[in-house]
Amino acid sequence: MLYQMLLNEADRQNVAVYENSMGSKIKGLYGDNIIWLNRGLASKTEKTCVLAEEMGHYYTTYGNILNQKKIVNVKQEKRARNWAYEKLMPLEMFTKAFEASVSNRYELAEFLGITEAFLEKGIGHYKEKFGLYTEWDDYLIYFDPLGVIKLFDG
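The chain above was modelled as a monomer; its predicted structure follows.
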């Protein structure tokens, strides 16, 4: 479902998405309104995470950033990944997972439709952005240790 949502968004933005064999090191590439996904990705879930990051490049990066030895390119790569984390795991989904009695990281990744590795990196992003926790609506979302607390009405 998330994968199709991202494909639909790409289509609305006139970004073409293709799958091709790309070797084992490259998961995806973006350039000139075209996203290439590695046909060899392990699962639809992994494909979703990679597509989200490549859409992040569409929205947030410019130019050729393949040379990751340049700090400006590293920053653009991080910006695209952060876009993907916030797209696939918005704060409100942590509270929805809490209300659905999700009890561990594996279940949370499954609930969100993302890989556990993507979840871990996304939690790291939120820790960098907010610190150990943030308030969202009537909840406190803790990133270390991971947890959600519903605040009293009052």
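The radius of gyration is 17 Å.
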